[in-house]
Amino acid sequence: MPQIRALRRVASLLTTPLSPEDFLGLVNPLSSTRQLRGVVTRVTRETPESTTIHFRPGKGWNAHEAGQWARIGVEIDGVRQWRSYSLSAAAGHDPAITVTAIGVVSTALARHTTVGDVLFLDTPQGDFTLPEHPRPLLMLTAGSGLTPVMSMIRTLVPRRPDADVVLVHSARTREDALFHDELLELADQFPGLVVKHWYTREGAAPAGAGEAHGRRLDLETTTDLESLCPDWRDRAAYACGPADFLDAATALWERDGADDEHAGLTIERFAPVLLPGTGGEGGLVTFEKSDKEFDAPGDVTLLDAGEECGVVMPSGCRMGICRSCLTPLVAGKVRDLRTGEVHGEEGDLIQTCINAAAGPVHLDI
């Protein structure tokens, strides 16, 4: 309306050089039109090293699907850092992330976040989501790989009387097992959920609990899986966890899985799939604007090299998806650690999270 546009022009004149939105941000931290934000509403300790952070997003947030992830920004020592985290809350609820204290950013979030803190947000992404049509499911997870699957379970099991879900979760000990009590309560309440915990350390569960195995879940053969979920071949399977866990699961399904395409395996990785032997010789990386250098081995990403020597590097997913880490190449060649391809011309935008130095490299950062 003309009147509203006129009021906005007057407000802009009165607040210059700031905008009216800048002043609104002092009252409501979610009112910014420049950057999507969320305010922390609850903080829950899950394990000694893991914390769930619930937040209320501001305008512009798209409701997440169960299993998706989002980029989360947090200011540390005056510098905004971005990381990608799976959303652990059920679809249709305010979002939450469950963070394990590994690395500078995750440790700051897990140990120092308090109610009322403001997080910077990007919209939910990812296709690690529930199947379109109901069918028996197998969820195979390890460590923090349970996080996106927990969103699926919280979404599906309480809402669908016909749910048929078997969860096999591997953790080091009972104390390290995310959402342990909640999962057992859900399994008691809803017959459509069966939970099998697998602990990899001796004595990791109370005597008689039948859950302490003292070794890693073996996915090189079908023996362990057959004992935990005899009809695993007939289920649509989802797996999330460390890279070697997912590699073994992928090989198992390719070798011994069913021919039915609907009973295949869908995986979610927290790190890029790197081609073995693509490291090469590495080289001296010069971060020109930061006036820093780092002699990087051939298997160390440019992102890790920069952070190692104190350069504030843009980043997001850290696995070659979101392209938030794009940095101009001034000189030199880089090697894509996923394919082994050597590439690079002056002025190219380089994904620093998946490329390493292939000889001397100069970056415009």
UniProtKB/TrEMBL annotation:
Residue limits of the 2Fe-2S ferredoxin-type domain? 283-365
Named cofactor requirement(s): FAD
Q: What's a Gene Ontology MF term here?
A: oxidoreductase activity
Pinpoint the FAD-binding FR-type domain residues: 33-131
Task: Output the PROSITE patterns linked to this UniProt entry.
Answer: 2FE2S_FER_2 (PS51085), FAD_FR (PS51384)
Q: Name one Pfam family in it.
A: NAD_binding_1
**Repeat as a keyword?**
no
**Annotated InterPro entries:** 2Fe-2S_ferredoxin-like_sf (IPR036010), 2Fe-2S_ferredoxin-type (IPR001041), Beta-grasp_dom_sf (IPR012675), FAD-bd_FR_type (IPR017927), FNR_nucleotide-bd (IPR039261), MRET (IPR050415), OxRdtase_FAD/NAD-bd (IPR001433), Riboflavin_synthase-like_b-brl (IPR017938)
| Keywords for this protein | 2Fe-2S, FAD, Flavoprotein, Iron, Iron-sulfur, Metal-binding, Oxidoreductase
What's the protein here called?
Answer: Ferredoxin-NADP reductase
